[in-house]
Amino acid sequence: MSSTHPVPKHRLTFGQILNMSFGFFGIQFGFALQTANVSRIFQTLGAEIDKIGILWIAAPLTGLLVQPIIGYLSDRTWHPRWGRRRPFFFIGAVLSSFALFAMPQATVLWMAAILLWVLDASINISMEPFRAFVGDKLPPSQRTTGFATQTFFIGLGAVIASLLPYIFTNFFGISNTAPEGHIGDSVKYSFYIGAIVFLASVLWTVLTTKEFPPENIDTWEQEKLKTKGFANGFVEIIKGVFKMPRTMLQLAIVQFFTWFGLFAMWIYTTPGIAQNAYNTVDTTSRAYQDAGDWVGVMFTVYNGVSAITAFLLPMLAKHISRKYTHLICLIIGGIGLISMYYIKTPQMLLVPMIAVGLAWSSTLTMPYAILAGAVPASKMGFYMGVFNFFIVIPQIIASIILGYVIKHFFHEQGIYALVIGGVAMAIGGILNIIIRDDEGKPANIAKLNMVTE
């Protein structure tokens, strides 16, 4: 390792971008099974509606702890054969596959809660380096395309995963009900398939994609030695949090309201729809389990819209800028969530999911494309991890307060959590006006797209 010159970032072919992004298909497959089914599992195992949020707190807390650490470590990792980020992809995939297989085996609530901690931590080990991967490998002119490709695979994986319990029940006759304290076979089989898909998809990216060494590798090695040790690493992480670029801080405010809304949806859609559209709170009833299956269909729609629009939103951004594209999409998504309060017919609930899908597609693309151009390349993984603070902190707050609010102000009607989430998402959309994204202005995007090898 004697070179002192950074490896130039040539424009990649579309096939190469697909290969480097394909692992996200498996990651989101696992994540979608989690978001669509964990509240259902908790309630099946005896959780009351006002306690679901607290049980879900495992997910954001693990992200808060794991992602900046993994980002920091992956920035400081380099192996001539395995690269920089790929070791973390692989380790996270193995652990996630184990957790996905074990989750539906839970027979008591505390076991399911512990497995959620394990599953979410494992997903985060794989997911965070994937975000930095785009900044590592792609020149600025292709980063929006890179994140859009990830969004496409995120949507595709989530579509299939969210739909699996419904397919097993309605097309293969596999039961979605079980004795009290047990999880239905349709959910179990979905998680088993998820374990296989997660590992296989990540392995595809690991085996088909090569990585560049860190820029100015000699200098990188010297800096690594200077900051060696856990204590130095912790200090560096804390310093980095307080030295965020201005654009990153502006994005963080938008992210706070956006992810509060998304987490409210993930936690409370199943109990909210079961009560509001299926008129049941009995978790052992066929009606409740049908509601759970239908929520999977609803989540399929929003993820499907996300996959379809993943390559359309960057084209819109060329004309009106990335931040205004994000503004419009979040406001539309917020209106979609609010409208679910008024809809009592299950089939009609698919309409607001189209609006949510537009917001989800933009959330997975625009903030990361803006951020990648605003942070130092040598600390891409670290800052992507720190950026996750402003995804998980609102989730923690939602976990703590929403249950109390729903119980004491809305008579345990979970549908009101979706209304609150919709208002938060719309506020996040409006706040995009504060973001400064010079690189993302229409004229600058057009110039970037003219860059060639």
Question: What would you say this structure looks like, in words?
Answer:
This protein has about 450 residues and is mainly α. It has one domain (about 15-450): MFS general substrate transporter like domains (Growth Hormone, Chain: A, Up-down Bundle), CATH 1.20.1250. The protein is about 75% helix and about 0% strand. The protein contains 20 helices and no strands. It has helices at about 15-20, 25-45, 50-55, 60-75, 85-100, 110-135, 140-170, 185-210, 215-225, 230-240, 245-275, 285-310, 315-320, 320-340, 350-365, 365-370, 380-385, 390-410, 415-430, 440-450. The longest helix is centred in the middle third of the chain and has 32 residues, at about 140-170. The two termini are about 25 Å apart. Mean pLDDT is about 85; it is low at about 1-5 and about 445-453.
